[in-house]
């Protein structure tokens, strides 16, 4: 037979004996074991593992199933904050509209407003006092600035007089008297300046902190009053209209909102009344103390200066009544 027509050798023909065949079978079994162990150790992703390995959803986020055909549903924990925020914006818009309409109606003379005569009078008095106290504070600051300049000038002038008293022997006493006077006035001026600064600080605290804090409460009270009148007007308009299945729920809702804003308004009114009374007592005590201190400082300043000036004038007069006979002017010599 030709080589092309010869049959291929089989395993049995390749094995020289039974021992070679047994070795080959063991080798094949080892290969099978290695393939199975390698397959177990190798990670092969499938649909289930991909689904399980997907990252967990964030808190409040709905789980997503990419292979399912059902639509994605938003969880309640994600929907509620958004709805609440939109609801707050809607309420704020409605409340702003109602309050703006109420304010315009009052300015045009078409709407009615709730008035507490005693409280309104106290608020108007507080505003007037605040304006006047603010003017007093500014004037006291101006006085303090000018007093500081005068005191500094008197101190420099006293130093110059003292220097001239030393360098001018023939006018030693005259320059000395003026130097002592200016230094004394400067020293008293510094004491007066401290008192004016203390008075200014007290007035500044009263006007810009105590009264300003109360004015913040006044602003909150006025806002609560406008809201109360706005919802009161809405309720009155609904009560004047027809009552049917459509308007009754609106009337009940308006009645509920009216009661809420009425309670808020009454609370703000009572709190402001108490605060105004406390402010009145505190204002009187603070001003009484500050005014007494300022008056005492000014009186001591001018009383001490007057005493010093009287002494200086007496010394000058005594000096003028005792002429110096040892020196003659050149006019007398002529």
TrEMBL record:
Q: Does the keyword Transcription regulation apply?
A: no
**What are this entry's molecular-function GO terms?**
phosphatidylinositol-4-phosphate binding
Instruction: Spell out the CDD domains in the cross-references.
Output: BAR_Arfaptin
Q: Which GO terms describe its cellular component?
A: cytosol; Golgi membrane; trans-Golgi network membrane
Positions of the region Disordered? 1-27, 45-73
Which InterPro entries would you find in this protein's record? AH/BAR_dom_sf, AH_dom, Arfaptin_fam
> Gene3D superfamilies under this entry?
Arfaptin homology (AH) domain/BAR domain
| Residues forming coiled coils | 221-289
Q: Where is the composition biased (Polar residues)?
A: 8-19
Q: Where in the cell is it found?
A: Golgi apparatus membrane; Golgi apparatus, trans-Golgi network
Q: What Pfam families does the database record attribute to this sequence?
A: Arfaptin
PROSITE patterns reported in the protein's UniProt record: AH (PS50870)
Q: Which domain of life is it from?
A: Eukaryota
Chief location of this protein within or outside the cell:
Golgi
Enumerate the UniProt keywords alphabetically.
Answer: Coiled coil, Golgi apparatus, Membrane, Phosphoprotein
**What are the AH domain coordinates in residue numbering?**
114-314
Could you state one GO biological process linked to this protein? intracellular protein localization
This protein is called: AH domain-containing protein
Q: Which organism is it from?
A: Coilia grayii
Upper classification of the source organism reads: Eukaryota, Metazoa, Chordata, Craniata, Vertebrata
């Amino acid at each position: 037979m030709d080589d092309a027509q010869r049959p291929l050798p089989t395993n049995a023909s390749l094995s020289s004996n039974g021992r070679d065949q047994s070795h080959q079978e063991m080798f094949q079994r080892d290969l099978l074991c290695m393939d199975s162990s390698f397959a177990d150790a190798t990670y092969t992703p499938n649909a289930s593992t991909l689904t399980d390995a997907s990252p967990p959803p964030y808190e409040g986020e709905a789980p997503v199933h990419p292979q399912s055909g059902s639509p994605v549903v938003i969880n309640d924990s994600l929907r509620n904050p958004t709805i609440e925020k939109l609801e707050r914006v809607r309420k704020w818009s409605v409340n702003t509209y109602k309050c703006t309409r109420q304010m315009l109606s009052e300015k045009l003379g078409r709407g009615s407003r709730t008035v507490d005569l005693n409280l309104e009078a106290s608020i108007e008095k507080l505003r007037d006092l605040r304006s006047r106290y603010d003017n007093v504070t500014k004037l006291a600051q101006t006085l303090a600035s000018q007093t500081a300049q005068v005191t500094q000038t008197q101190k420099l002038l006293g130093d110059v007089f003292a220097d001239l008293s030393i360098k001018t022997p023939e006018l030693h006493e005259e320059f000395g008297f003026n130097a002592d006077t200016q230094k004394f006035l400067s020293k008293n001026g510094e004491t007066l300046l401290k008192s004016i600064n203390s008075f200014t600080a007290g007035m500044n605290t009263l006007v810009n902190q105590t009264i300003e804090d109360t004015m913040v409460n006044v602003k909150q009270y006025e806002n609560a009053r406008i809201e109360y009148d706005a919802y009161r007007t809405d309720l009155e308009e609904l009560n004047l209209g027809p009552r049917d299945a459509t308007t009754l729920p609106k009337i009940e809702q308006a009645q509920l909102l009216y009661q809420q804003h009425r309670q808020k308004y009454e609370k703000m009114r009572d709190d402001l009344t108490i605060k105004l009374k406390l402010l009145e007592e505190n204002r009187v005590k603070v001003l009484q103390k500050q005014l007494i201190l300022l008056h005492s400082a000014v009186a001591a300043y001018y009383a001490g200066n007057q005493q010093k000036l009287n002494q200086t004038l007496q010394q000058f007069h005594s000096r003028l009544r005792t002429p110096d006979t040892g020196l003659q002017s050149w006019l007398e010599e002529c």
